[in-house]
Amino acid sequence: MELILDILLNPVVIALLKIVVIVLVFVAATGTVMTLMERKWMSAVQDRIGPNRANIPFLRDFRGRGALHMAADGLKSIFKEDTVPEGVDLVIFTIAPFFGFISAVVIWAVIPFAAPIGDFTFQITDVNIGILLVFAVTSLGIYGTVLAGWSSNNKFALLGAARGTSQMLSYEIFLGLSLVGVFMVNGSVQVSILVANQNTYWFGDVIPKWGLFTQPLAFVMFFTAMLAEAKRLPFDAPEGESEIIAGYFMEYSGMRYAAFMLAEYIAMVGIAALVTTLFLGGYHVPWLHAEGFQIFGWFMAVPVWLVSALQILAFVGKIIFFCWLIIMVRWTIPRFRFDQIMELGWKKLLPLSLANIVLTALVLLAVDNWNL
Amino acid sequence: MGLKFPSAESFVTSRLDEVINWSRKFSLFQYPFVTACCGMEFMAVYGPHYDGARFGSEIPRFSPRQADLLFVVGTVNHKMAPILKRVYEQMAEPKWVIAFGACASSGGFYQNYSTVPGIDRILPVDVFIAGCPPRPEAVLDGIIQLQKQIQDKDSGPSGFSGINPRQTKEELLLSRE
Are the Cβ atoms of B54 and A253 closer than 8 angstroms? Predict the structure, then answer.
C-alpha cells in the first residue's frame, strides 16, 4: 500500500497524470469539438442550420444536434485511402504532420488551470523561462509546413509552404516584440507570476489589473500575430484555392490530412489559452480571492475546493470565448492577399509593437518617478 | 433514461461495414468541378435557403486527394474531359461522382462536336441529377440517394467503394434499383 502511494505521489507520476488529463482529455477533446463548432457557428453566421443529419438509427435516431458528424469525419478519415504520390520523401512526408501537433500541444506545459493549493499546482511545470518556451515551441510548427511542402514533390505544395513559411517567420518577430511590454510591466516571463500579477486590483478592489487593461495595444497585436502564426483566417495565405489549391498539405489524404486539420484546431485552442493567460487574467475570476469573493468591503467566504473549481471553469469559459472569437473573425473578415499580409506585418504592426515598448517604458518611468 | 430495447431486432448487430459506410455517407467532402451555369444552382444548394450542409457534405476540398465526392456541375467539353478524368484519378478511394444537371448527365442540348455527351463516357457516375439546371430540391434528393447507396453498398474486402468484384451483373443491377 505504501509502495503504491509512494509511486502515485512521485512528482514524475503526478506530472504524467497532469499531462494525460490536460493534453489527452482537455486539449484533444476541445480541439475535436471545435472542428464541429466551426461548422455550426459558421452556419449560424450565414443563417443556415449546419450539419445535423448524422444519427444513430438504433437509439431512436439520436442526432445530438449534429455532434455525430465529428465522429463520422474522424472515422471516414481513418478508412480513407492513404495516398503516397510518386517521388515523395517518405520519411519526411510521414513525420511532417506531427510537427504541427507537437508545437500545438507543448504550449500546454506552462499554462496554469487554477491557483496552486499548497505544493500542488494546476500546471504541468512552472519553468522560469515560461513564455520563452512557448515562443521556442510555436516556432517549431513552421517545420511542419516546410517539410510537408518540401517532401510532397508537388509545385503547388512547395509554393504553399514557401508562402506559409514567410508569413509565419515574419509574424514570429512581432509576436515576440508585442509581449515585451507585458514582460516589462510584470518584470518576469514566468507564467505563474504573470498570472498572479493580474490578480491585483486598481482603485481599491474594483478593476482587476488584467493584461487587457495594462497592455491593450499588446493584446491586439499578440492576438493578430497568433492568428497569423496558426494560419487562421484572415491570414490563410498558405492555402488559396485559385492560386495554390490546398497549399502545403495538398498531397496528404485520409488520416494524414486529418492530422493537419486537427493540429490547426488544437493550435487554435492553444492560442485561446495563451491569450487568456497573458491578457485576461488566466484562471482569475473577478473579485474572487483565495478566501472568497471580496468587493467594496463586501465579503463572502468560499471553500478552497470551490475556488479551484470556479477558477478552472472560468479558465475553460474564457478559452471557449476566445475560440468563438477566432471563428467569428474567420467568418466576418475577408482574407488578406499575400502582399497585404506582409505589409500589415512589416509596415504597420512591427513599428506599432516597437512604439508600444517605448510607451510602456515611459509610463513605467513616470509611475516610478512620481509615484502615480 | 428512456432507452429501451423492446425486441431483439433493435440490438446492435451491425457489421463493421455498416459503421464505416455510416461515417462515409455523413462526411462527404466535395470537390466542386463547376464549369457552367449549373454552378448558380449549386451555390443555392449550399446557401442558407436549402443548406446542403445539413447532410455533412458542405466542406469543399480543392485538393482531389482529400475529396470524397466529385460534383461535376455543368458542361464538359472534349478539351476538358482529360482534365476531369485526371482529377477523378487523383482522388483517393473511396470516391463518388455526381453528374449535376442535364449537360453533365447527357450533354444536354449541346448536340455538337465539342461537348462530351454525358460524363459517364469517361467516369463511373453514381448519381445523375436531372434538370437544366436542376432545382436545389433535386440536388438534395441526389445527395440523399447517394447516401443511401453508400450505406447499402458492401464496402468490400479492402474497404474500397466501387463495384464489388464478387457481385454478379444481376446482383449489381438489383442493388442499383
Answer: no
What is the complex's ipTM, to 2 decimals? 0.79
Distance from C-alpha of A131 to C-alpha of A147, rounded to nearest angstrom: 26
The rounded distance, in Å, linking the Cα atoms of A237 and A278 is 27
Q: Which of chain A's residues have a Cβ under 8 Å away from the Cβ of B150?
A: none
| Lowest model confidence (mean pLDDT) among A31-45, A49-63, A149-163, B96-110 | A49-63
Q: What is the per-residue pLDDT for B176?
A: 56
HEC assignment per residue over A311-329: HHHHHHHHHHHHHHHHHHH
Chain A contact probe: residue of B66, B96, B151, B152 with most A CBs at under 10 A: B66
Long-range contacts for B77-84 (Cβ within 8 Å, ≥24 apart)?
A: B77/B114, B77/B115, B77/B116, B78/B114, B78/B115, B78/B116, B79/B114, B80/B35, B81/B116, B81/B119, B81/B121, B81/B122, B84/B33, B84/B119, B84/B122, B84/B123
CA angle B67, B72, B78 (to 5 degrees): 120
Residues of chain B with C-beta less than 8 angstroms from the C-beta of A76:
20, 23-24, 27, 68
pLDDT value for B6: 46
Q: Positive or negative, the Cα torsion across A231, A235, A240, A241? A: positive
The residue behind cell 444536354 is: B108
pLDDT of residue B160 exceeding 50: no
Answer whether 0.80 is exceeded by the pTM.
Answer: yes
> Which chain A residues are within 8 Å of B11, Cβ to Cβ?
58
CB contact under 8 A, A75 and B23: yes
Q: Find the distance separating the first CA and the last CA of chain A, reported in whole Å.
A: 58
Instruction: Tell me which residue in B11, B23, B48 faces A72 most closely, judged by beta carbons.
Output: B23
State residue B14's pLDDT score.
Answer: 54
Interface contact B19-A80, CB threshold 8 A: no
Among A72, A241, A252, select the one facing B56 at the smallest CB separation: A72
CA-CA distances (angstroms) from residue A300 to A151, A288, A311, A315, B147?
Answer: 60, 9, 16, 21, 58
Q: Among partner residues A54, A251, A253, which is closest to B56 by beta-carbon distance?
A: A54
Contact yes or no for A231/A264 (Cβ under 8 A): yes
Cβ pair B12:A75 closer than 8 A: no
* pLDDT higher than 60, residue B161: no
Residues on chain B touching A83 (C-beta within 8 angstroms): 65, 92
- Distance between CA A289 and CA A282 in Å, rounded? 14
Which residues numbered 7-36 in B keep a CB inside 8 Å of some CB on A? 10-12, 19-20, 22-27
Among residues A325, A316, A314, A324, the alpha carbon closest in space to that of A285 is found at: A314
| Pairwise CB contact (< 8 Å): B68 & A76 | yes
**What percentage of chain A's residues is helix, strand, coil (to nearest 5)?**
65, 5, 30
Could you read off the pLDDT of B59-85 as tens digits, one per residue?
A: 888 888 889 899 999 899 999 999 999
